[in-house]
Amino acid sequence: MKYRLPSEIPLEEYPKPEEFIEEAKKLVEDAEKDGIILRVMGGLGIYLHLEEEEHKKLWKKLGRLGGKFFTDIDLASYSKYREKMIQFLTRKGYGFDPRLLYRYGKKRQIFFGTKIPMVEVFFDKLEMCHTISFKGRLEAEKITLPLAELLLEKLQIVKINEKDIKDIIVLLRSHEIGETDKETVNLKIFERAGLNKDWGFYYTVTTNFGKIKSLLDKYSVLSDEDRGVVSERIDKILNYLEKLPKTSGWKFRAKIGTKKKWYNDVEDWTYLKAEE
Q1: Which of 81, 97, 72, 92 is nearest to 17 (CA)?
Q2: What is the Cα–Cα distance from 233 to 69, expressed in whole angstroms?
Q3: Is residue 169 part of a domain?
Q4: Domain presence at residue 249
Q5: Whether the Cβ atoms of residue 71 and residue 117 lie closer than 8 Å to each other
């Protein structure tokens, strides 16, 4: 069976943002009834944390994807649910290509739907330019990944794009920085993620923060207060990272710097490639 990718669906047929939101919540809730832990990741996960109407309006004004607010539903789970996940999402009306499952299935499962075009489930960790572990962290929230992981998920991207920059701006504008998970970006998670041990991850995160600060004036929809709050919260995280005691391995790698590649290559799969 040939499934349609989000990019192949005309805008007039494309599911509304509310449909993605409703489906994501329902998948998490129904999975829990089946004894499966699922948490929403990505931009959709960030949006689900927006409680104040002004922050939802800012999200819409920034227009992260034009008419297509979301492309898919990204979910995090533990590998012990891998087999049950296939059964669960199949019962929920999603299909899969066995070739994709064979190639990627240990780390992530890719599903295709009729109403929602795609659902991806990442197990135990996100392995992209850098690695973010979910171990023991999915229980910290009921619906989504914790805010610190949602932020790191975006910051780990070496070639960060405008969509991800806008996601980060909204997340930082709408949430305090502290040392708890409760509607707060938990600073302790940056150390847990290894930024005091892995110079490459540290460099990517701090470089992306610098890019975001330099781009704040570009977005006319941001008020002076928006820019000030986001900039201040970035500085708070950067100050925390700078003061973290670094390992000898971190210091040694820092001397080499960008002369040596500091990140992992990310395989850019498409369903069309799987059809070849």
Answers
A1: 72
A2: 25
A3: yes
A4: yes
A5: yes
Helix (H, G, I), strand (E, B) or coil at 74: strand
Q: What is the DSSP letter of 247?
A: P
Residue at token pair 């240990």: 106
CA dist 122 and 144 (Å) reads: 13
Token duo for residue 91: 């019962």
Distance CA 191, CA 193 (A): 5
Q: Given phi > 0 = left and psi -120 to 50 = alpha, else beta, which region is 194?
A: left
pLDDT in tens, the chain (276 residues): 567 778 788 888 889 989 999 999 999 999 999 999 999 999 999 999 999 999 999 998 998 766 678 999 999 999 999 999 999 999 999 999 888 878 876 899 999 998 899 999 999 999 999 999 999 999 999 999 999 999 999 999 999 999 999 999 999 999 999 999 999 999 999 999 999 999 999 999 999 999 999 999 999 999 999 999 999 999 999 999 999 999 999 999 999 999 999 999 987 665 544 444
Q: What angle do CA 57, 52, 216 make, to 5 degrees?
A: 55
Q: Is residue 1 part of a domain?
A: no
Question: Domain span at residue 173?
Answer: 6-275
* 3-class secondary-structure state, position 192: helix
Domain count, the chain: 1
- Tell me if the pTM is above 0.90: yes
Pairing relationship of beta strands 125-127 and 131-133 according to DSSP bridges: antiparallel
Structure tokens at 230: 């986001």
Count the helices and strands in the chain (H runs, E runs): 12, 8
Own/partner pairs, 230-234, CB within 8 angstroms, 24+ separation: 230/169, 230/172, 230/173, 233/172, 233/176, 233/177, 233/185, 234/172, 234/209
